[in-house]
Amino acid sequence: MNFHVLTLFPEMIEAAFLTSITGRAAAKGLLTLNCVNIRDFAEEKRKGRVDDYSYGGGAGMIMQAEPVCRACESVLETIRQRRQEPRRTSVIYLSPAGRTFDQKIAAELAKEEDLVFLCGHYEGIDQRALDEIVTDELSIGDYVLTGGELPALVVMDTVARLVDGVLSNGDSAQTESFMGDGLLEYPQYSRPEVWHGRQVPPVLLSGDHAAVDRWRREQSLVRTAGRRPDLCGGARLDKKDRKFLKTQGLEEAYRVALARTD
Asked: Does residue 227 fall inside a structural domain?
């Protein structure tokens, strides 16, 4: 997976991405990071400035279309030369106006060979540039940040975890929250067995793998109903799940899922 980031602050992206799991994966060649400083594509007479006042007035500055498009085209041309084919490359603009990023979108993006992220700053980017180069807009939530760098890192980290070989345990990504049928992950415990008077659930010490799997599934069902009931409708329930939900009084939370026969 090749990540390309168009930004005014490449050091911010590099410092975070080239650390921990993603950093180790990059060192192994499983991931690559190409940060492009949009300032390098500013008009010479403006001496590195890429922003200007907004037509119509208003607070703050707007990133100009020309340097943004020049930076993007330089990346796309490099990708085209490497691929030697005309396949479209996704150019993602991080914006509060975009569709809300989730695990399903991450799984879609993980199938790509190259992803280009455009990070806005100040009051945003000239709409004409977005109309010309952007293929998708993504938001990580209903709040406003100072720039697109942190959202880009969130998306990149989530996608990177789904790339083969990035996680040392290939099963990890498949058992986490929002994977499978979209429920929250079960609680996790480690040594010691007793900490501050709190005991690890005995079933996890039993060595009975089937019992452990059942406990984890039930904990996932309970946790999702209590914390994210909006996710319950996507659950794929077997006979044991249905019986458990009835004993716990959780049938209403899973009403939509229980009504399905698949």
From this structure: yes
Beta carbons of 112 and 3 less than 8 angstroms apart: no
Q: Is the pTM of this model over 0.85?
A: yes
pLDDT band at 86 (very low <50, low <70, confident <90, very high): confident
Which CATH number covers residue 6? 3.40.1280.10
Q: In terms of C-beta density within 10 A (0-12 exposed, 13-18 middle, 19 or more buried), how is residue 157 classed?
A: middle
* The amino acid at 171: D
Provide the sign of the torsion angle of the four alpha carbons 162, 159, 183, 205, taken in this order.
positive
Are 120 and 229 in a shared domain? no
Give the range of the structural domain holding residue 41, as residue numbers without chain letter.
2-160
Spatial separation of the C-alpha atoms in residues 88 and 57, rounded to whole Å: 36
128 in Cβ contact with 80 (< 8 Å): no
pLDDT tens for each residue of 201-221: 999 999 999 999 999 999 999
